[in-house]
Input
Amino acid sequence: MHLKTFLAALLLVAVAITNLYAQARTAVPTSQRVDAATTRKVNTLLAKMTLEEKIGQLVLYTSDYDVTGPVVRAGYLKDIRAGNCGAVFNALTANFTRQLQKIAVEETRLKIPLIFGYDVIHGYKTTFPIPLAEAASFDTVAIELAARVAAREASAAGLHWTFAPMVDIARDPRWGRIAEGSGEDVFLGSTLARVRTRGFQGMEGWDLLATDSTVVACAKHYAAYGAAEAGRDYNTTDMSEQRLRDVYLPPFQAAVNAGAGTFMTAFNSVNGVPATGNRFLVTDVLRDEWGFGGFVVTDYTSINEMMKHGVAADSAGVGALAINAGVDMDMQGGIFQGSLASLVRRGVVKEKTITEAARRVLTMKYKLGLFDNPYGRNDSLREKARTLTPENLAAALDMARKSIVLLKNDRDVLPLSKSLGTVALIGPLADNQRELLGPWSGAGDAKEVVTVRAGLTRKLPSTKLLYAKGCEIDTKDSSGFAEAVRTARQADAVIAIVGEEQGMSGEAASRSQITLPGVQTELLMELAKTGKPIVVVLMNGRPLDLSAVLPAATAIVEGWFLGNRTGDALADVLFGDFNPSGKLPVSFPRNVGQVPIYLSALNTGRPVNVNEKFTSKYLDVENTPLYAFGYGLSYTTFAYSNLRLEQNVLGQRDMLRASITLTNTGKREGTEVVQLYTRDEVGSMSRPLQELKGFKRMTLAAGASVQVSFEVPVQSLGFHNAQMKYVVEPGTFLVMVGGSSDKVQTLPFTVR
Output
């Protein structure tokens, strides 16, 4: 072949490959596509709208509360009547949302209905465990059901939209909002982003949003909010694009692929650019690369806050940054309503930009069926019938039991015997309803919570249950210690319920120290002096520094904040009616000085060797976490054997197929979460020591064995290289399978 002909042919092939790559990056996922009929309806409506009416669809205002229930400020009612408000949040009850919807569809020129949103994070009225606790179950079916129950209750109260799931990867336990997500791991976080999106919306896509039992999901906080410096909420995030793409963005892309209808921008800046004004994140990645077709809402007044970030001097400046970045709806800030029309007239913002934002909001309203049936969810009888039902509460109990993690069990003190004569229940959270709901507990009512004391009383009708508070959660007052010790001395076993206030985690709830607050640790030390077995139950929204608790505790149970059925779930676990199966979705540090400490860290050029001085380590504490990612004990024991690979040389399009034999070597039935990790041993960039790539919950009778099999696409083993291209580089990998990240069997394999 002539050289010029060959080069021309080569050029054509290169162009074709480039075009295919570009198409793959911009292809719209099936779950994000809008049907032609809806598009025609939206176009017809947009043609009738003034600029101001289009802007009105981009405005989200809050409802408030007083002693009589939810109310809306007079100015906001005026905005609704004028068509200057497209959505309302915090408006609860079917009757109240009906009143507001009636104004929108009967008193405005174009009769465009409102969308009603709310923070339905881990339940609506029926409160489930906090999301971090749910993640500890590794039970995708139960977690999806929890989201579905929440959607069913919320939609019955007239709501269409939840500001969840929160899919931020979080590796700093000082950050209070770690409670709202799925922990530190990318694979687990991405899996649960998909699961929760499906639970809220009913399927992978938008087609069933018009049903009366679903709500639109909102993936938040986009992006890298969980990487705030020093674990301080709202703080700066600064990282390489490679880490952003490989760690913090995948759960958001998973939400897109599952059909999430909306996204919420984060408060933080990312590499110097506030997320709410970050065109790279909102347009280049979210819309153009991932094909997101829904609308983007800000977090509460985050457009306004860009002035404090120092990237614009006034409201018009930050309004232009947000709308031109690709933001569609302004939550509570009033910036869009006050500045967009003027910005269009000045030529700073194109009217087409406003039109496209309004198109995305109106499309969602059509998909929700609001134009055909605006009052479909405003039925107070249906609201009552669907709320706090026995089925919903049973699902909450199941989720709570599966979320509990057994961290320590010396001398097999747990499960406790129901034949114990006397049990001492001690601690500030032992007979407490209010705190057990946890942060962001929706419309949950503390009066509906089963306390630990109530749960144990029901569980142990023939046992003498003694109670002493001992101390408050966060106080220096130890005057109750003496009574607590006297109570403990009378008992056969002591159950100490300690932890945090619910307000110590969640938004604006960062802590520089993550030990038990107040004098609770000192209380445990005094109880330990009695010589009685001390079962410590933790109620908290983050990993804690337990170094001082360990010597005092015979057993430690991580109970998180478990919601409505807290007392029943803990009673079932503590007294053996439910065998704990939870595994940690986040590493527990030995002390706060190790933070951040996480599973998928990179190695250094001087890995730890205890016999050498000049290595990467601390002088006063080990490098390893106190409790590793994936760790959790059971009342039975499990053995792993015979790890095998179907093939140990794989191509780029192949499937890694691994199997291992799991045996219940104990004396009772139990459930184990089998975990598969991989490691790329040599890459063009340093690769993580371990990456979770699969997990399975397996229930086995005593003495039973089962072969557990995994299929992992080779394409999932890649990373973004220095050129920001996703690649799976040829070379040697390790596969690791076991019951926690620090106890695995290992085999090598090769990718061609």
The first strand starts at residue 59 and ends at 62. The mean pLDDT is 95. The two ends are 31 Å apart (CA to CA).
